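Human: For the file, kindly provide a plain-text protein record giving the amino acid sequence and the backbone structure tokens, at your earliest convenience.
Assistant:
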Amino acid sequence: MPRVVPDQRSKFENEEFFRKLSRECEIKYTGFRDRPHEERQARFQNACRDGRSEVAFVATGTNLSLQFFPANLHGDQRQVPTREYVDFERETGKVHLKAPMILNGVCVIWRGWIDLQRLDGMGYLEYDDERAQHEDALAQAAFEEARRRTRDFEERDRSHREDLESRRQQDPSPGSNMANADVEHKMR
């Protein structure tokens, strides 16, 4: 099953959902809302260092669970994200974040920054052309494999039907051997 839609760029550029989120807008950290602010600040920084966080686009209410790793890893090997994905040093009091993902069948990169005191900031989505091409190639390969399997199945099915048909033509009275076997068995 392909993870992306056929024309990702068109969907990204034309769908209202993506058009809204592709403009820089206000975001907030949404994790642990029931905890005191100081604890939320510490938990946010620890989560970023672990390569993950939850944020929301304030204007649309869109919540995202982000992972700050290259698209092919997504934290599988329990590593620490690089400065390319989590940068506490670019600006004092802020963390700059980058999270590649597939969202609604489109390869995108979420980029933004969050103020470490207020736990809000600015963020946006951008189209990830490189990953989109890679995912399109994977989807095409999966499609071709499914088509090959279908052809193989149809060929085996046709061959099986032809084999059955040739057997029927050799013995035109189906079940006649069975009846003869029953009569032979009763005579013994």
